[in-house]
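dude i think i finally got it to work??
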Amino acid sequence: MKSILKMASVGNWNNFAKLYIKDDAHWYLMPKAKDIDAKQVPNIYNFLITLKYWFVDLGWKNTDKEEFVKNFIKSAQGEFFKSKVEVWNDKTQLFMTCMAFKGNLISREQETEEKMKLFDGIISSFDKGNSYEDIESKYGKEELINNFCANSRNFINLCQRLGFAWIEKNAEIIITSVGLEFLVAKDFRPVFEKQLRKYQFCNKTITSQRYKDIRILPFKFTLELLMRVGKNYLTKEEFALFVTKCTEMSDIDVCLEWIHKFRRMGSENRESFLENCNKRRRGQIRSHFKELSEQVAKNINFLTFAGPWEIVQKDKVTLMQITDKRVAVKILREDEDREFLDVDTKEAWFGQYGNHDQRFDLQGIINYYTRIGKTEKARDLIKQVKDTQEKEKLKKKLAERLLEKHVEEFYLKNLNLIENGLSLWKKGNLTGHQFETPDGGIMDILTITENGEFVVLEFKRGRSSDEAIGQLLRYMGWVYRNLSSEVPVRGYLIARDFEKYIDYALIGMQHPQIPNSKGKDLIKKFRHVFDTKQTGVESIKI
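look at this
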């Protein structure tokens, strides 16, 4: 979808204002009630380390804190809560909010005296070792979850926006590799900068349809714009009017034109133009321009949190300004081939964004598309690669993946050849084919038996090494912790042939092929029927 900067002729101020008032799409990098600055970093760190201790590492087990936790999460009947304590739900949310208040991570300044008295009563009940049910019975779920716990959701949102932690209702709480890097980093800024440079808008964590057509890498776009715009600065006004309305990376040239013309406007014309942009639509409490002007401050704070720029005040005007041109040039050179990543689910986006080693450059995204079978997208991007040798490597990798995909799709239609009773796992819009997780990787095929037992299938086009066992176990572990806590998860390693070391790997996990072993048959080898040494269509020997 075209941005309004391209729809209106540059300099046609009346037409632009009319389009601006009607256009709801804009950059929404930080929610209205959220903000981030350097003062918050220690609080984000302490919240994340607290979350890790209680609900990821389960540091309370076998300590004097164990009875306290068990008492808090027990059911009304006095039985131990059946779900894993690592799952994010009302109980864990209340627990973390109390811990955040006790650690002075949440400011009390904005709350009324009456409200803080109520909150202190909740915290006191928590400290006394009351169960969640007792506290909910006394204060009511509405007060606990919608009011009291709202104070900690600021941290939840920041952890999600920065890719530090996966915190979703009724899902396992995950500290990502990026989050773990942040927790051990001596200087937080490189970690933040890396995430800001990877961040894209819109992505699957943003569910509102009003933003779905925006395909922007905000850090790269804004940095390039600042390096090209006069005197290397942007005002909040210019950001709210033009920058935040760009919908694709190619809008940068037309955005520059609008800004330059805006700066050359006389004061009278400018005042009239801003007045037109500030008009409200019918039913609006505030104008779109006022809304965006407030939002822009949060967007700029988010973008300038790390990098070669800063916010300055000059003649009572707030400016976003480059502070180190050499660093800016270096970043733009490094990010020259950084691309927008199309993903299908929130889990898929987080699995890439929260991965410390994942680069959103051309090669990284081609590898991702190749891995999940989006071959047309991969082909289109390979055409953009300038280095001939690199292009040939990527072509070969894509060809190999197509062979693997051919094997995979055959068995997807013939699961009974692997094991009778297997069917593809499905839940809502999710499917077990190329199933992407927020932190566990991408599974080839996730199946389920007639008895509700999960079985993970991992495919290799030719000979498989023992490394594939670790990969398959990682997938099985993720499924067990998130989908199947009651029944063991099984797996199949499917390949044309197997290295002998795989047997040692299976021995190491007490595989039943070893005499007198009492281990459960969790992983089986399965030889597929494809000759993948051939090019073109593989021969099927069934």
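The chain has three domains: 4-29+199-334, 38-185, 408-527.
im so relieved honestly
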